[in-house]
Amino acid sequence: MTRPGLRARAQRLPVVTRLVLAVAVTMSLVLTGTAGLVYWRVQTALDQQLDDDLATYQHTLDRAVRAGAALPPGPSGSLHQVLDARGRILDADPAVRGRPLLTAAERGAAARGHTVRRDVGSLLPITADTLRVQAARVTAGGHVRLVVAAVRRGHRDEALRELLAQLAFASGLTLIAASYVGYRTARAALRPVERYRRGAAKLADGGQDLRLDVPADRDDEITRLGHTLNRMLDRLAASAAREHQFIADASHELRTPLTLMRAELDVALHRPRTAGELTDTLRSVDTEVRRLVTLANTLLDLEQLDSGERIQRSPVALDRLLDDASAPYRAAAGRDGRTLTVTCDDATVRVDPHWLHPAIGTLLDNALRHGAGAIALRATVRDGRLSLSVADAGSGFPGDFLPHAFERFTRAETSRTTPGTGLGLALVAAVAASHDGTARAENTSPGAVVTLDITC
Length: 456
What we know:
Elements (H helix, E strand, L loop, with lengths): L2 H9 L3 H53 L10 E7 L4 E4 L11 H8 L4 E5 L10 E10 L2 E10 L1 H51 L16 H50 L4 H32 L7 E4 H18 L4 E5 L3 E4 L1 H18 L4 E8 L2 E8 L31 H11 L3 E6 L4 E8 L1
Parallel strand pairs: 7-9
Antiparallel strand pairs: 1-2, 1-5, 3-4, 4-5, 6-8, 9-10, 10-12, 11-12
Helix pairs in contact: 2-4, 4-5, 5-6, 6-9, 7-8, 8-9
């Protein structure tokens, strides 16, 4: 199977399984390396001791052969052979009297003066009579002799096999323990994720007002994920609430003009009408259509602001901003015999004129339609904030209306007979909020004033 195929299969495994496999593979590599190091250190120590014993015994045999003396006994488990240059055994331990300890190549190397060392038998699989052999050339009485010393490796091999068994057992237990701990740790770490998944599944199945249970006394990656998901759920809930509010507002406010239009048309179609009557009907319908257009545009503007869409701030001269916003209302104020004055600081502010213009226009339009006397538009800049107010000298707001002035479709009883949608001040409040500010309305003596306090 190709490597991409293995990778694809691994990626389809559950996260916990992949984590446990990663821990198991990593621990296997670590344990193998550690066991290899321990085995190498112990083997080196045992071989060093074995080689020291063999070298001492070899030296004793060489000295005895040179002197022509009887070969002395060696340490426990030692063996010896003395060969002539042709490889014939001249003297040997009874256990190896008929068994050559050197191959022909090794005898040739020893005859040329090289020290030959080799092992007889293997550690694994277990073989009987394992030896470590060392041979050297010795000249005695003018003759070349090959002196072979050997020691048994049984104890050394047994110790290494026991060490291998213990290392394998300990490594296996450690690997099992590490895998179990990794499994439990992974399950514990991913348990909140599974809890979050179940909560999201309930929300997907139609659950309402669900929030994830996130511990307040932690600050790890998964906890931060939970807080992020809760913020996302809050925004989804707010978006759904805005959608429901928009639908409710639209259906409530659109019903009246549509009903009036239907009634006008039904009356006009009930019997033949004169041209004048039809003209009056069309004018009435046109008025309602204009109201519908204004209402729809205002609702869409409110939805755009409430959805959290970022405003586009740009530097603009404050006097130019107020002049442009108030210009359409100067003529209307003059026709009513009223004055409209604009005073402001000489400053440049960073605001979004696209939204601030209609907000100022709404306040001026309200002052013209519902107020009386002179109208004053003032703006001051202090400590990075713009305070913008529109005041008139009329009768002010009804006392019971002030707490609800900026709510949608709320209109004072005294203004019910004048055209309007009840969304103007709601739009003003939304524009202020989009600029990180507030809007407030209050009565003065005489008249009323509406103030926007926003960052600039």
